[in-house]
């Protein structure tokens, strides 16, 4: 299991830009990516992903509580468009457990295959308690990044993401 902890005030305001790339919070997702010939030369390919899934809260919350991300985010991932990637080696499902401690510090834990770095943020999608998340899984060798942008509405998840592969490590 890999665990990443961020303070909620920092986490809600930051883009997950821990890698030296222009990726993070809201880069546009499906349909918002620049054409391949406009990308930096170290990016070999980008593929678009689609997300579905469920959110199981760890406790009761009301819409007036705003986004309460504590619980299990279960994401089913499909390749929506492989773009110019010959291979898109993403898992078909991911599970993240988000926990908030008494100091409002959020942590996310996920089961992984191989060493990956996790960067994440969660914010309010609207005033009705829905949450929008950004989970970024960077390969240990720095040659790929899987970006998952789920949107939770009433416990149901939709969303998009992308897989990026690089010609040189982005550590």
Keywords for this structure?
171 residues; mainly beta; nine-stranded antiparallel beta sheet; 9 strands; elongated; disordered N terminus
Plain-language structure description:
- It is built from one helix and nine strands.
- Strand 4 and strand 5 (105-110) form a beta hairpin.
- It has one helix at 8-13, and strands spanning 2-7, 43-57, 71-81, 93-100, 105-110, 116-124, 131-139, 144-153, 156-166.
- By secondary structure, it is mostly beta strands.
- Strands 1-5-4-3-2-9-8-7-6 form a nine-stranded antiparallel sheet.
- The two termini are 21 Å apart.
What's the arrangement of secondary structure elements?
Elements lengths: L1 E6 H6 L29 E15 L13 E11 L11 E8 L4 E6 L5 E9 L6 E9 L4 E10 L2 E11 L5
As a percent range, the share of strand residues is over 45%
> Please, how many helices?
1
Overall pLDDT metric? 75
Extended strand count? 9
- Numbering strands along the chain, what is their spatial order in the largest sheet? 1-5-4-3-2-9-8-7-6
Query: Which series of helices and strands comes N to C?
Result: EHEEEEEEEE
**Derived structural class:** mainly beta
Parts with pLDDT < 50 across at least 5 consecutive residues = 1-32
Main sheet makeup: 9 strands, antiparallel
Categorize the overall geometry. Answer: elongated
**Rounded radius of gyration (Å):** 16 Å
Distance between the termini: 21 Å
Percentage of residues in helical conformation: under 10%
